[in-house]
Structures are given as C-alpha cells and as structure tokens.
Amino acid sequence: MKHPRSFRWIVRGAAACVLVSAVFAGGSEPSGAEPRVRLTTQHVDFRVVYSPGTSNELFLVARDGDARTNYFSTNVVLVVQPPAETTIPDGFPELGEPGQPLWILPSTQNVELLYLGVSGEGLPAGVFDRPPEVRLVAVEAPGSFLVWQFDSTGVLKMFMDSRDGIDPEDVIAAPVGGHGHFYWGFTSNGFFEVTFRVEGRLAGAATNLLAADTSFRFAVEPLPPEPPPAALAVIGVDGAETNQLVCRLTGAVGVAYRVLTSRDLRVWDEGPEVVAAATPVEFMVSLPESGEQPFFLRAVARPF
After folding, report:
1. What does the pLDDT look like over 284-304, one tens digit per residue?
2. Topology of 6-27+226-301 in CATH?
3. Domain boundaries in the chain?
4. Does residue 166 surpass a pLDDT of 50?
5. 294-301: strand order across its sheet
C-alpha cells in the first residue's frame, strides 16, 4: 500500500504551520498510537480515582482486577464476546420486546465473558459527603445501551438506558471503598462509544467536583466488517479565520470521519466529526494559541 501524499501549508495571517495528509480508514487508530488492550474475560471495574491537586481531581479508569492494572479509556477496548448474545425473554418489558436480540454482560461471573462493575475502591473515607456518581453522558453506537440490576425481591431496576434519551436519572453511585456489579446490555453488535462523567462533592464543599467526560469503547461481537479501502479521506485547507482553520474533507460518501489534531504526531486530540458527501464538506478546527510549532490534521473513518 502506498503512503498517502502530504503537504505543508502556511496559514495566512497566522504563524502556524499545518501539515495535512490523506488518511487511511477502517477504524484503526492513528499512526503512532499504541494499540488498545482488549479486555475479554477479566474482572474489570469502572473505577473512580480521586487525585487532589490535579486539574480535574476525579478520573474514571478501567481497572483490571486480575492484573491489578488501571487503563485510561483511550488505551482499552471492552469486548463483549459472542456468548453474551441472547434474546429478550417474556416477562421483562423493561428490556424490550420478547424475542429481540440483546447482548448481556451478567452481574455474576461467567468465565466466557467480561465481568464488569463500578468501583469506589481506593477512595478515601470521610472525604466525600456522598458516594461519587458515574453519569451517562452520550452513546454513539449502532444500538442502545442499558445497565440494570435486580433488587432482593427480584424487581428489575434500570440505572442507565439510552433508548429514551439521556437524562439525570442515568447514573450509578460508586460506593466509597467498595464496588458493585450490574447487567450491561447492548441491543446490537458493533462498536459502542459510551461516554461517562464522574461527579462528586467533598465534605463541606459548596460545589461539586467534575471529571472530564470519558468515553469507553465496547466491541460487541461479532463485529461488522471494516470499511472498504474506498473509505480513504483527504483533507484540504482553504484558509484561516480568527484562530480557526477552514478545511474541507473529501471521502467516501456517507462515511463519518473523526478529525484528529496533533502538535507532535504522538498525542492526537479529538476534533469535529465530518460525514463525507458527494462534494467536499467544509469544517473548521481551532488553531493552537502558539503558532511557532507544526500543527497536524488527520481523518479516520468511524468503525461503525
């Protein structure tokens, strides 16, 4: 496969130097990015981490309890393997229409599936006035995302459900010093990008601490085939307007591309999502404050 052609372009009216390249698609990570660790059958928790003195102070990581390792969301993919696929039985209208497919990670351990929970282990006692909360913020996926438990009487309680929109009720408390397990449901196979936000209040504080929105990727198997090679995209640059770079994207019609930006070709930040059309689609990205260093753009096809 030939390498894409690249070119260097100086933004008029600004000192920034921008490198724009044609980019290969297929849902792969940007060149230079570390491959994600696949968690498949491990005991894993979404763990709330408190780090006083840092910018956000609260963080959400994937904790592999078997390996005693924390993973940032960008370094891991949570795999929902084929044995998770089932059909909705009668008597559970909260889950949907009987007979419809549903992929479920159970709340009790199954050696063939990921064992997933929510954890506040490691949080200091007496620091928070109540357990921090993990809130559902967004779901980008080919289907819906559900989280539920059964209480001691067998009644189903839904904690998160993207089917009816996302609201303040889509929340799970992370018990300080403990953890809990839930049923995690997916109404389709494919890639799910699920975004959470951690919120907590220190004892005696007037306002809440908020973690940055954190998106975790679930791979619900069997995965659909990757986009064909025709999903190649090319970014062009048209000019600059008040610290905004005016760009255009040409790609496979109907394919959604993530635009990524970088200062060093190692760390890539999320930019806008652009859906390719029959003619080049214009979009804008913010230029960095300092224009003395190179500024790089890439576009990568969404894996779903």
Report:
1. 888 777 656 677 888 888 765
2. Immunoglobulin-like (2.60.40)
3. 6-27+226-301, 37-220
4. yes
5. 6-10, 17-21, 294-301, 256-262, 269-275
